């Protein structure tokens, strides 16, 4: 198979979808790999490293897309890439379709096969290609939140861990999944007073057992969320419904009950956000303020730490990429329920129900193509 790796062009996106090590693995399996020049530079990988691993370097994205049967990316295609994607081409990347209808429509019109990292799902409901970036984003949410609590950045002016004689900051984490667990772990390690909320009592029991003593658990419902936001300094939104829009747990009216300088970090922004006032921001301009509450809603948080993120992501995606290249997407998805769950759009049809439901569009059973 001919595989193309274009350079990511989303604002401040420095990750790359394939490392030189991954390139070598695909070449070893008999595949041709085209990598756009400087695609790996932001993550610390040179064109020379890719060449030594067996890749062919191409100077422009249009040629990479034109030559490749499978495109491997990190982030969803953006508008200037739409026209480069063609019928029957396989695109393997994060899509987060349910949060952006123009992307969904563009991929439907392209006739391409869109296999989304975020909906590749195992029988135990875990999301193996979302987990590594959720781990990074969860940990980063505290790092960024602690920074924006500083007064010069319009925060409350409170140190996350406090000091002897002064109470630490209070951190509220919405969602006890991968993002929330990693956020709570880092916040607790920095000495904050942490509360983590979830709707699953079994999950809360588990977290109560494994988390340090400065992490408390509470059942998530509208009443409890409304009460806790009033006196927490940093609030992390980390809820997820695979492939679907995130539920709005913090509504516009709750902002007026928060203290000035409270910081909200919405890690769920890729899926539409779990904070009603959330709108996607970039690393270049990461925050905005509504009702004296600081909103940090960067849609590609792990892109700020590309070396760590690229290695973490490609450790997870490479085995699936090799399987797709070796067998072709139809056979690979027929044999693997995990990969089959990743199919979102095929030949102009939406084959993932949550995406169709998000925009009231027709849904087609993926079995039509397998």
UniProtKB/TrEMBL annotation:
Q: Where is the Alanine dehydrogenase/pyridine nucleotide transhydrogenase NAD(H)-binding domain?
A: 149-297
Supply the enzyme class, top level.
oxidoreductase
Residue stretches making up the Alanine dehydrogenase/pyridine nucleotide transhydrogenase N-terminal domain: 4-137
What is the E.C. number? 1.4.1.1
**Sample GO molecular function, one term:** alanine dehydrogenase activity
Which Gene3D superfamilies does this one have? NAD(P)-binding Rossmann-like Domain
Q: Which NCBIfam families match?
A: alaDH (TIGR00518)
Quote the protein name from its UniProt record. Answer: Alanine dehydrogenase
Q: Which organism is it from?
A: Chryseosolibacter indicus
Task: Tell me the organism's taxonomic lineage.
Answer: Bacteria, Pseudomonadati, Bacteroidota, Cytophagia, Cytophagales
Q: Which gene encodes it?
A: ald
């Amino acid at each position: 198979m001919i595989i193309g790796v274009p350079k990511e062009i989303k604002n401040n996106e420095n990750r790359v979808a394939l490392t030189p090590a991954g390139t070598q693995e695909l070449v070893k399996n008999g595949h041709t790999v085209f990598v756009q020049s400087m695609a790996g530079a932001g993550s610390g990988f040179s064109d020379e490293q890719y060449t030594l691993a067996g890749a062919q370097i191409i100077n422009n994205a249009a040629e990479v897309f034109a030559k490749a049967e499978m495109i491997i990316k990190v982030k969803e295609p953006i508008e200037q890439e739409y026209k480069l994607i063609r019928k029957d081409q396989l695109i393997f990347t994060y899509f987060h379709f349910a949060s952006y209808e123009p992307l969904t429509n563009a991929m439907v019109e392209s006739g391409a096969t869109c296999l989304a990292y975020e909906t590749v799902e195992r029988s135990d409901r875990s999301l193996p290609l979302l987990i590594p970036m959720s781990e990074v984003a969860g940990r980063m949410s505290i790092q960024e939140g602690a920074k924006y609590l500083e007064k010069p950045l319009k925060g409350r002016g409170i140190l996350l861990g406090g000091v002897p004689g002064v109470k630490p900051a209070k951190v509220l984490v919405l969602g006890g999944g991968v993002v929330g667990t990693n956020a709570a772990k880092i916040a607790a390690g920095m000495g904050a007073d942490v509360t983590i909320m979830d709707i699953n009592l079994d999950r809360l029991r588990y977290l109560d057992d494994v988390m340090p003593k400065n992490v408390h658990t509470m059942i998530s419902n509208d009443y409890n969320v409304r009460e806790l936001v009033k006196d927490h300094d940093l609030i992390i939104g980390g809820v997820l419904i695979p492939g679907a829009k995130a539920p709005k747990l913090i509504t516009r009216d709750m902002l007026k009950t928060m203290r000035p300088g409270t910081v909200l970090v919405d890690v769920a922004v890729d899926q539409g956000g779990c904070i009603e006032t959330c709108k996607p921001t970039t690393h270049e301009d990461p925050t905005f303020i509504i009702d004296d509450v600081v909103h940090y809603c960067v849609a590609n948080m792990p892109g700020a730490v590309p070396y760590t993120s690229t290695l973490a992501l490609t450790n997870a995606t490479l085995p699936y990429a090799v399987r797709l290249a070796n067998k072709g997407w139809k056979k690979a998805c027929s044999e693997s329920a995990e990969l089959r769950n990743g199919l979102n759009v095929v030949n102009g049809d939406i084959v993932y129900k949550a995406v169709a439901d998000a925009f009231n569009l027709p849904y087609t059973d993926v079995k039509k193509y397998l």
